Amino acid sequence: MKSYLLAVILLFSGPGLAATLNGKVVKVIDGDTIVVRQNGVSYRIRMLGIDAPEYHQPYGKDSRRALDRQIGGKRVTVQYDEKDRYDRYLGTVYYRNNNINLNLLRNGEVWVYKQHRHNRELMRYENAARQQRLGLWRHPHPQAPWVYRQTH
């Protein structure tokens, strides 16, 4: 429960609550993972609260391109608190004070991460994108990334 509350606080807080990283996005790995370079050091960032289609999954390349268009090569701020089991920093990415994690949800580029699906605020953004048939929701039967990962 504590980790859930922390994740929600980090996702919706502005800069200043968690540790902060300011740097340039040097690589967009997929629709929810980037590499940010600060002072010559590269950091892998897994965007908190969202889950993008896998790269080889339908809409995976589109999701990656959408994130690259928003922040590829740009200077961003990342609020993070911890690392995941893959040694990636879990964080919320901001560009010009815009929460990119939420922008991706709003535009239908990603799902709410399955551990966060009970979060009403996040689900509100996902549901609005679904209703408007934005991004991956234009497809008749999009498959959640966690389902895809189980079979591939």
TrEMBL record:
Leader peptide range in chain numbering: 1-18
TM stretches of this protein: none
InterPro entries: SNase_OB-fold_sf, Staphylococal_nuclease_OB-fold, Thermonucl_AS
Source superkingdom: Bacteria
Protein name (Swiss-Prot/TrEMBL): TNase-like domain-containing protein
GO cellular component terms, semicolon-separated: cytoplasm
SUPFAM superfamilies recorded: Staphylococcal nuclease (SSF50199)
Keywords, comma-separated and alphabetical: Endonuclease, Hydrolase, Nuclease, Signal
Keyword Lipoprotein tagged: no
An annotated Gene Ontology molecular function: endonuclease activity
Ranges for domain TNase-like: 19-139
SMART domains per the UniProt record, alphabetical: SNc
PROSITE patterns listed in its UniProt record: TNASE_1, TNASE_3
